[in-house]
């Protein structure tokens, strides 16, 4: 089966081809036709099975097929709820990639960042809104968004949302939606709590279960290494070096442990960054492109242009006031620079999704 046989718009197929996909995954083969038929869906699949495209592609197809005739500001017609900021950003990027040749506007909103820019973008009209429950309710409370014209609701990683205690926020969101809508629920497993939520949310849903219940993906190879606590970091560095691993995600027990491990790996010559709850959203955004292959090429080109500009124009970059420049010099060149408080805003804007900060007066 190919994507051409699924009844998708040629502009969507063009965007899919540019992403390098040729054949739909099993969950996409089952989910896309069902969503296009207008059915409610309850799907279970492990991460990495292509479930995001399983609801994004037919969602976009529905929006361009059923364009509203009324003129004026675009209402939010599709709502995608996710448990975390990072997942929301990832889904938002997928929506932008697949809708690049369509007259579709999308927006990602989550907490931890200023709400005002999000409110300004909503005023311009949005077709697809990707949101975390808390920030969505904040925006609705301030009358920045109306949810009375939602046609498709997607709950992604619903099991995680329940585990994180979002059930009350979800119920508040559902109460503000129109009763006539299509509901898509995606979860890693069909737990009893998920089934209870589905009974209240879904109407005669099609159930899809790609992976076996409560099992890890077969593509994951698991190993256990017994090692003394003091030599864990040494073993990890050796494994990364010998295996020539290009991307590694390490979970630690504590936030301090994450910071310490990142420092030690950097000393070993392995570029590392720690991400945890004590980091601001801005700090997470700075570090995330290092780990994200989808945007790393463009991001690093802009980073290197910024480094070249710093070396050429800033005569005292070793003691610069620019917080962003300090991070760049330390991250890219591993150059230690003095830490000083920022002085003023800089109009230089090269980095995507990173607020340009300050440059010392000597630059």
UniProtKB/TrEMBL annotation:
The record's GO CC annotations read: cytosol
Question: What's a single GO MF annotation on this record?
Answer: ATP hydrolysis activity
Keyword line: ATP-binding, Cytoplasm, Helicase, Hydrolase, Nucleotide-binding
Q: Which GO terms describe its biological process?
A: response to temperature stimulus; ribosome assembly
Q: Which reaction does it catalyse?
A: ATP + H2O = ADP + phosphate + H(+)
Q: List its EC numbers.
A: 3.6.4.13
Please tell me which stretches of this chain the record labels as motif Q motif. Answer: 1-29
Query: What residues does the Helicase ATP-binding domain cover?
Result: 32-208
Q: Where is the DEAD-box RNA helicase Q domain?
A: 1-29
Q: List the SUPFAM superfamilies hit by this protein, alphabetically.
A: P-loop containing nucleoside triphosphate hydrolases
Query: In this record, what's one Pfam family?
Result: DEAD
**What family is this protein classified in?**
Belongs to the DEAD box helicase family.
- Protein's UniProt name: DEAD-box ATP-dependent RNA helicase RhpA
Q: Which organism is it from?
A: Salmonella enterica subsp. arizonae
